[in-house]
Amino acid sequence: MLKTLGAQVKEFKAASIATPLCMILEVLMETVIPFFMASIIDDGVDKGDLHHIYMVGFAMLVIALIGLLGGLGGGHYGAKASTGFAKNLREAMFANIQTFSFANIDKFSTAGLVTRLTTDVTNLQNAYQMILRMCIRAPISMICALAMSYVICPRLANVYLVAVIILATLLMLLMMRTHHYFTQVFEKYDDLNASVQENVAGIRVVKAFVREDYEKEQFTAASRNLYKMFVKAEKLISLNAPLMQFTVYSCILLISWLGARMVVLEGLSTGDLMSMLAYCMNILMHLMMLSMVFVMIVMSAASGRRVAEVINEESTLANPENPDYEVCDGSVCFDQVSFDYHGNREHPILKNINLDIRAGETIGIIGGTGSSKSSLVNLISRLYDVTDGAVYVGGKDVRSYDLDTLRNQVAVVLQKNVLFSGTVLENLRWGDEEATEEQCRQACRLACADEFIERLSEGYDTYLEQGGSNLSGGQKQRLCIARALLKKPKILILDDSTSAVDTATDAKIRRAFAEHIPDTTKFIIAQRISSVQGADRIIVMEDGEILGFDTHEKLLADSEIYRDIYESQTKGGGDFDEKAGES
Amino acid sequence: MAEKVREFKGGRRAPQGPRPKLAHPGKTLLRIMCYLMRYYPVHIVVVVIAIFAGVLCNVQGTWFMKDLIDVYVRPLLFDKNPDFGGLAQAIRRVGGFYLLGVLAAFAQNRIMVYVTQGTLMHMRNEMFVHMETLPIKYFDEHPHGDVMSMYTNDIDTMRQMISQSMPQFLNSAITIVSVLVSMILLSVPLTLVTLVMVAVLLFSTKKATGLSGRYFVQQQRDLGTLNGCIEELMEGQKVVKVFCHEDQALAQFRKLNHQLYESAYNANRFVNILGPINAQLGNVSYVLCAMVGGVLALSGSFDFTLGSLASFLTFNKSFYMPINQVSQQLNAVVMALAGADRIFTLLDEKPETDAGYVTLVNAKRENGKLVESDTRSGLWAWKHVHQADGSVDYVELTGDVVFDDVDFGYVPQKLVLRNVNLYATPGQKIAFVGSTGAGKTTITNLINRFYDIQDGKIRYDGININKIKKADLRHSLGMVLQDTHLFTGTVMENIRYGKLDATDDEVIAAAKLANADGFIRHLSHGYDTMLTGDGAALSQGQRQLLSIARAAVADPPVLILDEATSSIDTRTERIVQEGMDRLMKGRTTFVIAHRLSTVRNSDCIIVLEQGRIIERGNHAQLIEEKGKYYQLYTGSAG
User: Fold this and answer.
1) Of B102, B246, B597, which is closest to A249 when you measure between CB atoms?
2) Phi and psi dihedrals of A202, rounded to 5?
C-alpha cells in the first residue's frame, strides 16, 4: 500500500522533501530561543551588561526571523506537496478506472468508486500534510529540546527523559485502546446514519403503514446504544489532558525543587533553570502532538488501503498482443458458450449457448427477468469474457480484436443508459466526435428523437442536466439510440431500450432501422412481444438457456413459452404504459 | 413531478466556504446553551467550576515561578547553610494546587464526554422523532442529501463545538483575563509591549484568513465541480466504456482536477503560514519583553525584579496560547453555528397536523347492531364520538370512497387536480389511466392524506376524512408504491413491517398470497436473508413482490396500488399480477394502471388528463365512446 501511494508523489517529491527540512529549520530556531534567554539573564542582567542584552536580543530576533522563514517554507511546500499528492492520487485512480472492465466496475460499485475518489483522497491529503509537517517536526523538536536540556544540565534533563518514557507508554496504550473502540463506534455510527437515510427515502412507506412510532423506537434504541459506545471510547480519550497536565506539573515541581537546590548548592545559573522550565512544556507538548498524529495516520490507513486497491486493480480484460483492427462484417456466432460473472463453472448463468447469426439479420430476444438476456448480448462487444467456449464476430474470436475497434463496431444501448451534462449535440457526438450537425439530425430522425428535440427550447443546443433529468424516460431512450447510431456500427444492440417509448413510435423506429441500416445486424431485447415479432428470428430465453430460436410464426406454433407470452400480451395483457405521455 | 422521491446524492456536503453568513449567531448560540442546560444543568455548572479552578491553579503555578527565584533561590545563594524548608513548603502548596488543577481537568473532560455525547444523542433523537412527524411535503421540498447532511456533517460540527470549542472559549477567556491581570500587576510597561504585539498578531490573522477565505471559496467551488464530474462519470462509466470514451473522460477530469489542485494549494498555503507567523510573533513579543524587562530589572525601576521577569515571560507565553487557540477555533465555531441553525430549522418545522377524532376499532355484531370488540374480529368499524353531545356512533368499515369536487395543488397557486368527482363502492376496482403528470399518483396521495386538499371533500364510508385520525385512516389503507422501499433487515422483518405482531406463519401466508414465497425460499437464507441497501441484491420484480406481501400481511380493506410493472418482464409480471389479483379480491382498490389486463378487469376506469377526469366508465363503455381511452388502448396516439 505505501509503495503504491508513495509512487504517486511524483513531481511533488521536491516539495515533499523541502517541507520537513523547513520544519526542522523552524524547530531548531525555536529550540535555540530559550537558550539565548538564559544568556540574556545570566550574562546580561546578572552582570549588568546592557550591551549584551541588546546583542543577544538582536540575535534572537534574527533567529525568530529564520524560524519564520522555515515556518513559511514548511507551510508553502506542505500545501503544495499534499494538494499535489491528492491530485495525483485522484488522477491515478481515475486513469486506472478508465481501463476497468465491466467486471471490475461491478466489483467496486459506482458509490464505492465515488467515495474513494472524494472522501478517501481528502483523508489522505490531510494525513500526508500532517506527516510531512508534524511527523518530522514533533520528534525533532522533542529531541532538540531534550538535547538542549542535557547541554544545560544533564542531571535535571534525566527527569524529562523519564517523564517522556512514562508518558509515551501511557499515551500509546491509551491510543491503541481508543483506536480499537473508535473503529467499532464509527461502524455503528454509519449504521445509524444508513437507517436515517432509509427513513428519509422511504418516508412514504413509513407513513403509509403508520410505522412512525416503531421507527422512532428503533432509532432511539440504536441511538442510545451508539451513545454508550461513544462514551466508552471518549472516556478513555478524556484521560489524555489530565494525564498530560499531571506529567507537566510533576516535572515543573521536580525541576523547581532539584533545580533550586542546584542553583544554591552547585552554582547552576538562574537563567539555566528558567530555560529548563521552558523546555519542559516544549518536550511534552510535542509528545502529545506526536500521539495525535499517530492516531490520525492509523485512521487514514483505511482510506489508503481503499485508494491503493483502485490504483492496483488490474483490468480483467486485456487487449490481445497482435490485435485485429478490422471487423469485416456483422455476423455473430456463439460456440458452446458458458458464462458466469464469478467464473462459476458448476452453475453458470449462461449455459452452453450455440448461435449462428448472419450479418444484417434482426434478432429479437425475449425472456423473463433473470433469464440472462443482457448477459448474452454483453458478450458480443466483450463487455465480459466468456467462461467457456467462444464468441465470434465477423468470423473472428472477439478476444482477438482490439477492444476499441470491436466496441466501435458493436454499438450497445445499455439497459441502464446514461446521458451526460452538456448539450444534446455534445451528447450525440459521443457516438462520433466528427459528426456534422446534419449527421446528428439524421441519426435522430432514425431514432424518432428529432421531433421532441426540435421542440426543446434551444433545439439541439439545449443543455441537458446531469443524467438527462430534464427529459422524460422515453425521450432519453430515443436520444441514447441516436447516439449509438452515430457510431455507424456493424452490430447494434438495443437492451430493452424502448421500454418507455410508446408502441407506435417503437414500431416507427424499427421500420427506420430496416430501411436505413439494412446491413447492420440488430439485436433487440424487449419485454413487449410487439417489439420483437417483426424480427427475422427471435431467441426465447429462460434461466440462461435458449429454449427457441426461430421466426415468430414458427415459434408461435412450436414454443409453448413463446405462445404463452404472446397470448398474455395480446389477449387482455399488454402494456398501457404512458403511451399518451410520449405524444 | 413533485411526488417522485428525489435521489439521495453523496450524503456528505462540503461546507459552504470558510465562513457562511449567519442570520442570528447570538440567538443560535443562546439556543444551544439552553439546550445544554435543559438536559445537563448540574453537569454544566460543575464543568464551569472545574474550568475556573483549572485556570486559577495554573495561574497560581505561574506566580510560583516568580517566588521560586526571588524568594527561595536568590536569598539562599550566599547562605552558608541554606534552609530549603521554605521552598519545600511552597512546593507542597503549589503541588496541592497543581493536583487540584489535574483533578479539575479530569472532571471537566470526563463530564464533557457525557454532556457532549448525551446532547448529541438527544439532538439526534429529537431530530429523528420530529422528522417522522413532518408532512410528505417537507421531504418533497428538501433534497435527501441535505437532510442526511444534518445527521452527519452538522452533528459532527456540533460535537466539535460542544466538546472542544465551548470549553476552550471559556478556558481561554478566563485565562486571558487572569493572565492579563497578573501581567498588569507584574509590570505595566511590559504588558503594554505584549498588547501591542497582540494587536499585530490579530491584524496578521485577519489578513491571512481574508486571503485564504477567498481561495477557500474557490476551492469549495472547484471541489464541487470535480465531485460532480466524478459522480457523473462513475455513474456512466459503463457508457464511457461502450463508447470508447475513456480518453475524453480522462481529459475532462484532468482539467478539473488541476483546477482543484491550484485552488486547494492556495487555500491551504495561507492557512498553513498563519501558524508560523503567529508563533514567531509570539517569539518576538517574548524577546521584546525580555529586552525591555532586562533593562527594567537592571535599572531597578518599577520595582521590577529578575523573578518578576521570569514570571512575566511565562505569562507572556500563556497569554499567546489562548489567543491563538481562539482564533483557530473561530472558523469551527462559525461552521457549527451554521449547522446548528439548520438543525434548529428542522426542529422548528411544523409537524403534520391531525385534528381527526374518528378512530378505527374492532367490531362485532350484536343483535344487528355494531359494538366495539376487544379482540381482532375481522370486522372493523369507525368509532365516531360526536363532538357536540359525546354520543358514540359506529360505522362499519366497508371501503366506500367518494371525492366531491376536489381541488388540489402542491403549491396553492398551481392546481394539479381540478373538480375531481369520483365514487368507489366497496369491493370495486377503480383504475386510473393517463399520461405522466396527469395526476394519477396525486389522487391516491390524497386518500391517505399525504397531502391535504385545497377545496372539496373526500368521504370515506360517509365520513369526511379530515375527521378521521390519520394513523387510523392509513391503517385501513394498504399501499403498494411505485418506488418500492425495503429496509435493512431480514426478508421476514420487511414483510412484517405491514403488521408488527404478525406471526411467522402469517408472514409466510402473506408471501404465498403475493407469490413471493417461491423466490424467497430460493434466497441463501430463505426468510432470514438479510436485505441491505434498499434490497439491492433483489431484482425489481422481487422487490415488488415483497412490497405486495407487505401490504398483504396488513390485510387492509382498501388498497392503493401503483402498478410499476414497466421493468418486469411479462412472465414475472403475470406472477406479480396473480399476487395482486388475489390481494385485491374483496377489497376496494385504487390502482394506477399500466397494464391492459388490469385496466380491462376494472369496474371503473378513470381517464385523467392535466388534473381533470375526462372520461369514466368500464372498458366496453369507453371503447364505445371512441375518446382518449380508445386512442390509448389502440395505440393510435403518438
Assistant:
1) B102
2) -105, 25
